[in-house]
Write a structure and sequence with these properties.
Layout lengths: L55 E3 L21 E2 L1 E3 L15 E6 L18 E2 L6 E3 L2 E6 L4 E7 L3 E7 L6 E6 L11 E8 L5 E8 L3 E11 L5 E6 L21 E4 L2 E8 L5 E8 L3 H11 L5 H16 L2 E4 L2 H14 L4 E2 L6 E3 L5 E3 L6 E2 L1 E2 H4 L3 H8 L1 H16 L9 E3 L2 E2 L8 H10 L7 H12 L7 H7 L10 H21 L3 H10 L7 E2 L4 E2 L28 H4 L7 H7 L3 H13 L16 E2 L2 E2 L18 H15 L15 H11 L1 E2 L7 E4 L6 E5 L5 E7 L7 E7 L2 E2 L4 E3 H5 L2 E8 L23
Parallel strand pairs: 33-37
Antiparallel strand pairs: 1-3, 2-5, 4-10, 6-7, 7-8, 8-9, 9-17, 10-16, 11-12, 11-15, 12-13, 13-17, 14-16, 18-32, 19-22, 20-21, 23-24, 24-25, 26-27, 28-29, 30-31, 31-36, 32-33, 34-35, 34-37
Helix pairs in contact: 3-16, 5-6, 6-7, 7-8, 7-10, 8-10, 10-11
Length: 773
C-alpha cells in the first residue's frame, strides 16, 4: 500500500483553513479522500448529491494504455495537478470524461501540461497534501508553483471556482479542450470556443471516447473583466504524448474552431480573488448559458459552498449513526459515495441527449444517466429504494426514457450522459426496476417499464440472447464469458418474473420464471462448478476453475467466484452442491484457501482477496451472506467481520477495489446496518450483524427504523438474541415492509457463536418467490 500522509489522520478542523463549513451535520463526517489511492478510483473534488457537475483536480490524464489507476483523474500518490475539470466518474473500472479543464496560472503561461516528472515543463503545478482541504461539496489546494490558492464548490449544474493569486504576479486562467481521461490520438473530433461581447466564454467538444460521438458544451463567466485573451488551435504538428509542439499561434481573440483548442484569459495583477463559474450541457452552448443564467446568479462563493454543504447535510441526515469517529467517517463517506450516481444529465429546460444522440425533453421528471448497472443493481440502487424512493422514481423514468430513445429498443447497459457504451454483461436495468416496484416504489408507468424489461430480455443480438432463449444457455463457442452470461441472464429473468407477478401478468411471469432455472444448465456436478457449454451441449474442455481473464468462461472472475451466483434460488444451489454441510464446507474453502494475488495480475478488477473471495469485485458481494441460507448464520457474521476489518479503512487507499459508482460503498452501508439485499427483486434482506452501535433511518414515509447492538466490540462478534420491536426474531431475514413500518431491530451480541438459531428451515433466508420457497 502507498505511504499515507500523516496529516490525513488529523480532523478536518486541523487542516489548512478554508471557508468554514457547517459546524454540525453529517457532511463533516465525510472524507472524500477515501478511495483516491490504490484502486478505489474515487475523486476528491466538489459535487452535490447526484449532481451533473463533479469539479475535481486531475493529477494525470494518461493515454489509454496507462489510464486504469486514473479513472477518476486523480491519484493520491501524485505530486502535481494538471488542472480542474468538471466531469468525473466515481469509482469506475473504466475511464472517460475530464471535460472543460481549467488551470489558474500566475506569471508566464505555458500552453501544454508538460511532464509531471519535469517541474516547470508545462502549465501543471506541484502541490502538497498538507495544503488540501477535502470536504463534501468543497475542495481547496495551493498550487505551489504559482502560489495560487484554488477553491472549488458545486451546484447541480454549476461548478464554482475561487482563485487567490499573488498580488505581484499577473493572473491568468487557462482553458484546455484537448485533454480527456482515457486519452488517445484523435479522441477530440471537433471543438469550438467563443468569447461573447459580455465576457461569457462558451464552447463545445465532440469526442469519440467510451461513448462514441459524445458532445458536451459549457458556458463560463468571470467575476473580473478580462484584460485580454488568446484562443489557440494547437493541432499543427501536434504529437500525441504531452501535447507539445509549435502549434498555431493565437489566430483569433473571439472565436476558434478545431480539434486542439486552448484559451488563455488574462486579468492583470489582482488584489482580490477571482471567481469563475462554469455550467455544462449535454445539448448545446445555448443551453449551457441558460443553465448558468438560472442556477448561477451572482458572485458569492462562500454562499454556494454553504449551499453544497447544506445539500449534503440534508441527504446524509437520512441516517443517524452512533459510532466511534473512524467508523462514523467510514460510514458517512460510504453513504456519500453511494449518492453520487446516477448523475443528473438534463438542462434546466428539460432537454437531454438520448442514446440515439438526438435531443429529447423530459416531461414531469428529471433525466439521470451514468449507469454502471452490472455493479449498482446489487446494493447501491436497493439502498436508494430504501432511503430515497422519490429519487428511484426519477431513476426508473430515466431508464424507460432511455429505452424509448434507443435505436435498439432496450434498456441501458452501461450508459453515461445518455449514451450507451455496451460495457459489461446482463440486462441489469431489469432488476433495478423490479426491485423498486416490488418494494412499493411508484410514480412511473409500470406497463411501459414491463414492456422495456421484456424487450431487453428478448433482444436476440445482445450477448447472444438468441441462443440463450433457444438452448437455455449461452454457448461458449458463440459468445465469450458464456457461463457468467447464462447465470446473470437467469437472475435477470427471475427479477422480471417478480415484477410481472406483482402486476398480475401471469403469462409473462411464468415464461421468465422458467427461464430463471437456466442456471442449472451451467452446473457441472462432476467438478462442482458452474461451467460454459458448447453448442452441442458438452462442457468446454479443458477446465481450470482458477483461470480468469480473456478467453475464460467468466466475466472478471473464475469458477470459484461465479459458482455462487444463483441469488434467485440459493436453496436450489445448496441442493445441487450436496446439501448444507457440503455447501458450507465449500464456502469455507473459498475463504480459507491460500491464493497468490499474482494469479490475477492480468485481471485488474479482481482485488481484495480473502482466499478466492474477491471483495474488490462485485460477483463476490453476496457470498458471505450465503451461510444464512444453509443454517449457519454465525459463519455469515464471522465472514462479515473478516471483510469489514480487511477491506475498508478511513484512508486514501481504504477501498480494496473500484467503488464502482457506489456499489462497494453501498455494500458497506448495508452491512454496517446489519442486513443486505442478496436478491434484489425480492422484498427480503438477509440478516448479518451490525457494525455500528446504533443507527436510525429517517424514512421518506415519515417513520423511523432503528438498528441497535449491545455490547458491540471485538470481544462480542456474534449475534445471540435478536428482537424486532421487542419480540424475539428467530429468522435470519427481514421484510422491506417491516423496515418501512418503523420500529427497532436489536442485536444482542455475544462472545461465542449461537449455533442453535437460524438453522431450521423456517428461519433461513431465502428470496420470496424463489424456487425452493
Amino acid at each position: 500500500m502507498p505511504r499515507i500522509n500523516l496529516l490525513f489522520l488529523l480532523p478536518l478542523a486541523l487542516a489548512l483553513s478554508g471557508p468554514a463549513a457547517a459546524a454540525t451535520g453529517h457532511a463533516t463526517d465525510v472524507d472524500p479522500r477515501i478511495g483516491t489511492g490504490g484502486d478505489g478510483h474515487t475523486f476528491p473534488g466538489a459535487t452535490v448529491p447526484f449532481g451533473m457537475i463533479q469539479l475535481s483536480p486531475d493529477t494525470a490524464m494518461p493515454d489509454f494504455r496507462h489510464a486504469y489507476k486514473w479513472a477518476a483523474g486523480y491519484q493520491y500518490g501524485d505530486s502535481s495537478i494538471m488542472g480542474f475539470s468538471h466531469t468525473h466518474f466515481s469509482g469506475s473500472g473504466h475511464s472517460d470524461l475530464g471535460d472543460v479543464l481549467v488551470m489558474p496560472i500566475a506569471g508566464a503561461v505555458k500552453l501544454d501540461p508538460g511532464d509531471p516528472a519535469k517541474p516547470g515543463s508545462g502549465y501543471r503545478s506541484r502541490f502538497s497534501h498538507a495544503s488540501e482541504v477535502v470536504q463534501a461539496g468543497y475542495y481547496a489546494v495551493t498550487l505551489s508553483d504559482y502560489g495560487v490558492r484554488a477553491e472549488l464548490t458545486a451546484g447541480r449544474r454549476i461548478g464554482w471556482h475561487r482563485y487567490t493569486f499573488p498580488a505581484n504576479r499577473p493572473a491568468h486562467v487557462l482553458l484546455d479542450l484537448r485533454p480527456s481521461i482515457y486519452d488517445y490520438p484523435g479522441k477530440v473530433l471537433w471543438a469550438s470556443l467563443r468569447v461573447h461581447t459580455d465576457g461569457t466564454v462558451t464552447g463545445c467538444r465532440t469526442t469519440r471516447g467510451w461513448a462514441p460521438g459524445r458532445e458536451l458544451c459549457f458556458a463560463m463567466r468571470f467575476s473580473q473583466p478580462m484584460r485580454s485573451r488568446e484562443l489557440y488551435d494547437r493541432e499543427t504538428d501536434l504529437p500525441y504524448k504531452g501535447f507539445s509542439g509549435p502549434g498555431h499561434q493565437a489566430e483569433d481573440a473571439d472565436a476558434q474552431n478545431g480539434r486542439a483548442l486552448v484559451g488563455v484569459f488574462d486579468f492583470g495583477k489582482l488584489r482580490q480573488p477571482l471567481e469563475v463559474k462554469v455550467a455544462i450541457s449535454p445539448v448545446s452552448a445555448a443551453n449551457a448559458v441558460a443553465n448558468l443564467d438560472q442556477e448561477g446568479s451572482g458572485w458569492d462563493f462562500d454562499a454556494r459552498h454553504a449551499e453544497a454543504t447544506a445539500a449534503w447535510n440534508k441527504a446524509l441526515a437520512v441516517i443517524d449513526v452512533d459510532a466511534p469517529k473512524p467508523a462514523r467517517t467510514m460510514f458517512y463517506t460510504a453513504l456519500y459515495h453511494a449518492m453520487l450516481s446516477p448523475t443528473l444529465s438534463m438542462d434546466v429546460n428539460g432537454d437531454y441527449r438520448g442514446p440515439d444522440h438526438a435531443v429529447h425533453r423530459a416531461q414531469g421528471f428529471e433525466f439521470y444517466s451514468t449507469w454502471s448497472l452490472w455493479d449498482v443493481y446489487r446494493a447501491q440502487q436497493p439502498l436508494m429504494v430504501l432511503l430515497n424512493p422519490g429519487h428511484s422514481t426519477d431513476f426508473i423514468r430515466s431508464l424507460i426514457a432511455a429505452r424509448e430513445a434507443s435505436p435498439f429498443g432496450i434498456l441501458p447497459v452501461w450508459a453515461y450522459q445518455g449514451l450507451e457504451t455496451w460495457c459489461m454483461i446482463g440486462y441489469h436495468a431489469v432488476p433495478v426496476i423490479a426491485d423498486a416496484y416490488v418494494k412499493g416504489v411508484r410514480g412511473f408507468d409500470a406497463d411501459a417499464a414491463l414492456r422495456a424489461m421484456v424487450a431487453s430480455a428478448t433482444y436476440k443480438p445482445y450477448g447472444d440472447l438468441g441462443d440463450y432463449m433457444k438452448l437455455g444457455y449461452v454457448p461458449i463457442d458463440k459468445e465469450p464469458e458464456a457461463a457468467s452470461k447464462t447465470l446473470e441472464y437467469a437472475y435477470d429473468d427471475w427479477s422480471l418474473a417478480q415484477m410481472a407477478t406483482a402486476m398480475g401478468r401471469t403469462a409473462i411471469a411464468d415464461t421468465f420464471r422458467r427461464r430463471a432455472a437456466n442456471w442449472r444448465n451451467t452446473w457441472d456436478p462432476k467438478t462442482g462448478f458452474m461451467r460454459a457449454r458448447l453448442s452441442d451441449g458438452k462442457f468446454r474442455e479443458p477446465f481450470d476453475p482458477t483461470f480468469a481473464g480473456y478467453g475464460s468462461d467468466y466475466t472478471e472472475g473464475n469458477a470459484w467466484q461465479y459458482s455462487w451466483y444463483v441469488p434467485q434460488d440459493v436453496p436450489g444451489l445448496i441442493q445441487a452442491m450436496g446439501g448444507d454441510a457440503k455447501f458450507i464446507a465449500k464456502l469455507d474453502q473459498l475463504f480459507d484457501v491460500k491464493v497468490d494475488a499474482a494469479h490475477f495480475k492480468n485481471v485488474e478488477d479482481i482485488t481484495g482477496l480473502i482466499g478466492w473471495y474477491a471483495h474488490g469485485n462485485e460477483p463476490s458481494h453476496h457470498i458471505a451472506y450465503l451461510y444464512d441460507y444453509a443454517g449457519a448464520p454465525w459463519k455469515t457474521q464471522q465472514r462479515l467481520k473478516q471483510i469489514m476489518d480487511s477491506q475498508y479503512a478511513p484512508r486514501p487507499d481504504g477501498l480494496s477495489g473500484n467503488d464502482d459508482l457506489g456499489q462497494m460503498s453501498a455494500w458497506y452501508v448495508f452491512t454496517a446496518l446489519g442486513f443486505y439485499p442478496v436478491t434484489p427483486g425480492s422484498d427480503e434482506y438477509a440478516i448479518g450483524r451490525p457494525f455500528v452501535k446504533r443507527a436510525t433511518l429517517h424514512l421518506e414515509n415519515g417513520h423511523t427504523f432503528t438498528v441497535s447492538a449491545s455490547p458491540l466490540d471485538d470481544a462480542h462478534p456474534y449475534v445471540g438474541r435478536l428482537t424486532l420491536n421487542g419480540r424475539p426474531l428467530d429468522r435470519r431475514w427481514l421484510h422491506h415492509a417491516e423496515i418501512l413500518a418503523g420500529g427497532e431491530l436489536h442485536f444482542s451480541m455475544q462472545v461465542e457463536p449461537d449455533r442453535a438459531r437460524g438453522n431450521v428451515a423456517s428461519a433461513r433466508a431465502a428470496p420470496a418467490g424463489g424456487a425452493g420457497r
